[in-house]
Amino acid sequence: MRLTILSTLSLLSLGLMASEAVNTVRIDVATGLVCLILPPAGKIIGDTQQDGHVQCTDGTPELLPSSFFVSKNFETTTDYVQAWGLMNDTSVGMLKSDGGGQYDIHADSGDNVATGYPVFVELLEPDTGRWCIRFCHALGKVCNMGDSSAGCEGALGITNWPTSGTTAAGSGNTTTTSTAKTSTTKTASSTVTSSSTVTTSAGASTSSTTGSTSTVTSSTGSTKASLGSYQASLGAIVPFTVMASAVYSLFL
Fold it and tell me: For residues 176 and 200, is the Cβ–Cβ distance under 8 A?
């Protein structure tokens, strides 16, 4: 009985240890959250893949310090979401001489999962200062887990490496669009209208300005008023001329 109890406790202990060893990585484009699996400090990635641990920018379970990132970029497509950039690898104890390694869902790189996705692949390249991680909706070539020696460029096709800052593409981007000033002239009515519009997709209000119309219309109104006065004057002069001619004929 005592042996059975001890055996049961041992199995439970092993189960708890195994559950604690699961590495859960996350990406959140909206908040800039990134989690990476990192090797033990001072160790080569390829020699210690099953000993990796997770560090995240939100501090859970461990903090991935802001000093780690030289640049951080995000991209969202219908097939995947990914984050990548340049890193200060020594800030987390990686060796600059390390040629790099890969973490993914395969058992040989540890017990690793990605929140909300069945597949992920992460590559770290301390010697080039590059890092990348991609979450995919399905197994396939989009999440290439079979070419770790090719690095982020060869395995995932990443070729854009901004040297600083944070960028986002896809659903998380913000764009600004402006339309050039347009002008329409109608000579028959002597009306000129000009307008310009600027629209910001991030939610700014849209403004429209129309000018020149009132000035030209006012000028046209003045012209019409002057013509009316002239016609009225002409109407008064014609009867007077006819009367004068009639009176003059009486004296002849």
Answer: yes
The amino acid at 42 = G
**For residue 162, what are the CA distances in angstroms to 34, 72, 157?**
17, 8, 15
For the record, the structure tokens of 150 come out as 């090719």
Give dist(CA 171, CA 191) in Å, integer: 44
DSSP 1: -
Instruction: Give the C-alpha separation, 118 to 136, whole Å.
Output: 7
9: left (phi over 0), alpha (psi -120 to 50) or beta: alpha
| Per-chain mean pLDDT for the chain | 72
Phi then psi for residue 248, to 5 deg, are -60, -35
pTM of the full predicted structure? 0.61
User: Looking at the chain, how many residues does it have?
Assistant: 252
- What is the Cα–Cα distance from 57 to 114, expressed in whole angstroms? 15
